Amino acid sequence: MNNSIPFLDLVTQHIEMEEEIVETFRKSLRTAGFIGGPMVEDFEKDFAHFCNAKYCVGVGSGTDALRFALIAAGVGEGDTVITVPNTFIATTEAISQANTLIEFIDINEKTYNIDTEKLKEYLETQCYRDEKTGRPINQSTNQPIRAIIPVHLYGQPADMDPISELAEKYNLIVIEDACQAHGAEYFSRKENRWKKAGSIGMASAFSFYPGKNLGACGEAGAVTTNNEEIAKRIRMIRDHGQMKKYFHDIEGYNGRLDAIQAGILGIKLRRLADWNEKRRTIAYRYNELLKQVDGIIVPYEPEWSKAVYHLYVIRTQRRNELQSFLAEKNISTGLHYPVPLHLQKAYERLKDKNGGFPVSEKTASEILSLPMYPGLTETQQLRIVESIKEFNKAD
What we know:
This protein is an alpha/beta fold. It contains twelve helices and 16 strands.
């Protein structure tokens, strides 16, 4: 009997929806509607509504979504974009591929999201203001800062009020990286209301990679925005720069959302709120079970956050040993992410040194993602936690 606990169970979820998914495929076969069309348009409308945004544009991936959002917002060559070093490389790939420069700001040790005090300090002490635009200019590179990409890591929103206030003060664009935050909510103290991830910045990027809270059966992504011009421009960018076939206003990309994937996402979207609530229940149970376990730091959720726990990430100084021990117990875990981006070989050109972003570096050596998916049972959770306790006793 297989008693292993997977890190993520996508098989059970898809078996439960098998007939609906197959029917979506049949619909595409019978209409030959594979690219664009009603299924894509319906999903865009429904996902925009889910995010409390006016517009949604389906694209080929989350990386496309970030890249296209930057380009559509007018961020380009010679500009600099601020983000964090503890994210998947797609965030910075999108920045580089939009011909812009990367500037890292370290994270808050509790939330793992951008440290807004460090962001403020950077803008005030390492930049000077352009007299014409009011935008900050990096003192070292002499390049203008044009945008901030806060990453809602692990399904928890960044603290958007101070980010938005700094953006307004310095005439900066905010593009949310919501690729892990489908359905997450942020309480704006400034507006005294809850706001969905995907509705706060000028634009927001989502990934529908299969393992996300809302995942396709392949690659897919979307941009949400309240700006009609941004939405219109992304529709052109994703389709070779054309609004009408063979009439190209700009050079674009081939970054369209497949109809079959849109249809599958539409089926899953109807279940997403329930899945997210199950994830939250599982996270709170983990918190309760682990709160008395020595050496384990559980996720921190501020009062202004309704996280959706794309990942449940603990911290321990003996991360590698614990991960190996759990593997021996047939419990799969993950590392998100083991090497901060500023220390990756791909970014040697940035000349950022070890020690430059100490919080990101420290947490990267301690984080461990435990199994997390809506179908994870209480019995499985108890076994995971008992195994962690057993590891502690064996020390």
